[in-house]
Structure formats: C-alpha cells, structure tokens
Amino acid sequence: MAYASVCKHRNLGEGEMVPFTVEGQEIILVWPDGGELKAFTGVCPHDNGLLKFGGFNGRLLTCTLHNWVFDGRNGEGLSPTGCALEEYPLRIEEGWVQVDLPATVAE
C-alpha cells in the first residue's frame, strides 16, 4: 500500500463529505462536526451503492440506494447495525490529504 494525494486540506471543511475516485477506487473524505477527517470506501457494503450520491448531515452518512446509515466519525453501521464502511489510513503532508489505499488486484 502507498499513500496517494487526494486534495488540498484547505479545500475541505468540517461537516462535509467529499467523494473522489483515486487510482480507480471510489473513496469519500468525511469530516464530521467536532471530529477528525476520515477516509472511507465510497461504496456501500450492502449493495455497492455509490455513497457520493448519499447524504451527510455533519454526523450521519446515508446511502440513497436502500437508506443504510453510517456514523461519519467511525464508519460504523447504525441502521442496520453489524456492518461498517472500510476506513483507510489518512495523513496530511505539505498541505495535501493523502490516503493509503489497498492495492487493487490486476485483472
């Protein structure tokens, strides 16, 4: 795994969710109100719905495909419980948000 630059940190704001496609992978950067910036998979674990079309109210992330709800602070499933979004390691280097993505399997 290697860190990939996603965007400038200054372009993100608390209470926002911003989607990106990085190295062919859908990710979302989520900055919950009063929390820390997080990087999660951009795909719902239920039916592979793209979370970039979902809603984020500063704390809760909702997949519009079947209304699954996740906690933006840790990716844990709230409705239903027992599921979670995959979280990726994140760092800020020289003003850039960088995310450590898993290697993709070559087809």
Automatic annotation (TrEMBL):
GO terms for molecular function: 2 iron, 2 sulfur cluster binding; metal ion binding; monooxygenase activity. Transmembrane segments: none annotated. Residues 4-99 form the Rieske domain. It comes from the Bacteria. Keywords: 2Fe-2S, Iron, Iron-sulfur, Metal-binding, Monooxygenase, Oxidoreductase. This is Toluene monooxygenase system ferredoxin subunit. The lineage of its organism: Bacteria, Pseudomonadati, Pseudomonadota, Gammaproteobacteria, Methylococcales.
